[in-house]
Amino acid sequence: MTRAWLAPTADGPVRATVRVPGSKSITNRALLLAALADGPSLLRAPLRSRDTELMAAALRALGVRVEDRAGSGGEDAWLVTPGPLRGPAEVDCGLAGTVMRFVPPAAALADGEVRFDGDLRARERPMGTVLDALRALGTDVRPTGENPAGLPFVLRGRGGLPGGEAVIDASASSQFVSGLLLSGARYERGLTVRHSGPPVPSQPHIEMTVAMLREQGVAVDDGTQDVWRVEPGPVRARDLDVEPDLSNATPFLAAAAVTGGEVRVPGWPERTTQAGDAIRGILAEMGCAVELRDRTLVVRGPGTLRGVDADLHDVGELTPTVAALAALAEGPSRLRGIAHLRGHETDRLAALAAEINGLGGDVTETEDGLVIRPRPLRGGGWRAYADHRMATAGAIMGLVVPGVAVDDVASTGKTIPDFPGMWAAMLEAKETAVEGV
Ligand SMILES: O=C(O)C1=C[C@@H](OP(=O)(O)O)[C@@H](O)[C@H](O)C1
Ligand SMILES: C=C(OP(=O)(O)O)C(=O)O
């Protein structure tokens, strides 16, 4: 059992410039598409964290070369050289939704047997939809554990797949759609994915998938709601600069919000498909000054934060940060449209309610979200439940509530290589304010 991490309390307004590592969602899509491409691709400034290292390892296991390289400016890069996909191979998904939902549709193209497993919690994450779709498309997939509809399982590839049409219920995760689309162009007849069921969450992530496919020369028709058609054809190799991870920027921006400070994040894209961009509107609604200037996002916190009524269906990833902000605001908040968060790294609705209430808060779970009423809070234990975003939410709380002890800060390594170091550097920075925000 590792020692808890005592979240540092800010001794005044936080003023810092924070460089955020690359986007998990872009890095793992880029790795997978590079593995299916018609030549080598250089991915510059990729995220190096547990989720992306697991994706790289999965692709290497299938016969793809993923090598460390420096880009032309000396920046960190991954050179991906595709090869024929083949088994036998073993894929460790860890707790990464992008690995467990994106790799099996690619592995269905491999020649040979591919075994998938992951963390214990990963065995509980929704997965059956992808496996049923692959079966319906002609892949042999069999469970190898107790869960008939998830990890662990074995997939026996025959070196190709006819493709066609898959009708799925993607209401539990947009990744079911993204995973199938990413490999669909390499199926003989391409792939049509048709969603049937309650609304699909996290739409921007599907838009990111479609945009990245198009950038690699794949024809995608997304003109009809809940239907996506990927034409068969080559995936063109492409060198790419990975954008900073905007969702991972949010705890740092929250530090400005809750301390009345100012945090700048350089490299913020003017236009992006990343869901995390929505934090700008949420922070503004809560009373922050938010300005995107020359690709640097500047957030200045107010004296007191306002509560929000927010539908986070499209941007569920932001919920732990927004819930922490809401618990530290002056009025009540309601977060809606996020029932699917019960299937994330942990049941995030239950976890947020339990941990905020454990500090003296007043949070109730609704069918599809949370109602958060600010209360005076006290220090205490904060369980991360192996969830990187629960750990960073605990760090936000600790900035203004002395004595918040996060049990598993190492869980942040899922998507941030050195979160405690970055957090400490932010608190030590003491920069001066910029004009005009
Ligand atoms: O495709 C992606 O990169 C992601 C899609 C979303 O998943 P869900 O649709 O399961 O929420 C998001 O929450 C996750 O962090 C990353
Ligand atoms: C839901 C998330 O991750 P995953 O990609 O594992 O689904 C997340 O990062 O908030």
Automatic annotation (TrEMBL):
Pathway of action: Metabolic intermediate biosynthesis; chorismate biosynthesis; chorismate from D-erythrose 4-phosphate and phosphoenolpyruvate: step 6/7
Enolpyruvate transferase domain boundaries: 11-421
Documented EC number(s): 2.5.1.19
NCBIfam families referenced in this protein's UniProt entry, alphabetically: aroA
Localization, UniProt: Cytoplasm
Major localization class: cytoplasm
Chemical reaction(s) catalysed: 3-phosphoshikimate + phosphoenolpyruvate = 5-O-(1-carboxyvinyl)-3-phosphoshikimate + phosphate
Positions annotated as active site in the UniProt record: 317 (proton acceptor)
Coiled coil: none
InterPro entries the record matches: Enolpyruvate_Tfrase_dom, Enolpyruvate_Tfrase_sf, EPSP_synthase, EPSP_synthase_CS, RNA3'P_cycl/enolpyr_Trfase_a/b
UniProt KW Lipid biosynthesis keyword: no
Claim: Signal is one of the keywords in the record: no
Residue intervals passing through the bilayer: none
Keywords assigned: Amino-acid biosynthesis, Aromatic amino acid biosynthesis, Cytoplasm, Transferase
Entry function: Catalyzes the transfer of the enolpyruvyl moiety of phosphoenolpyruvate (PEP) to the 5-hydroxyl of shikimate-3-phosphate (S3P) to produce enolpyruvyl shikimate-3-phosphate and inorganic phosphate.
Subunit structure: Monomer.
Taxonomic lineage from the root: Bacteria, Bacillati, Actinomycetota, Actinomycetes, Pseudonocardiales
Name of this protein: 3-phosphoshikimate 1-carboxyvinyltransferase
Residues that coordinate or bind 3-phosphoshikimate: 24-25, 29, 173-175, 202, 317, 344
Family to which the UniProt record says this protein belongs: Belongs to the EPSP synthase family.
Residues where phosphoenolpyruvate binds: 24, 97, 125, 175, 348, 389, 414
Gene name of the record: aroA
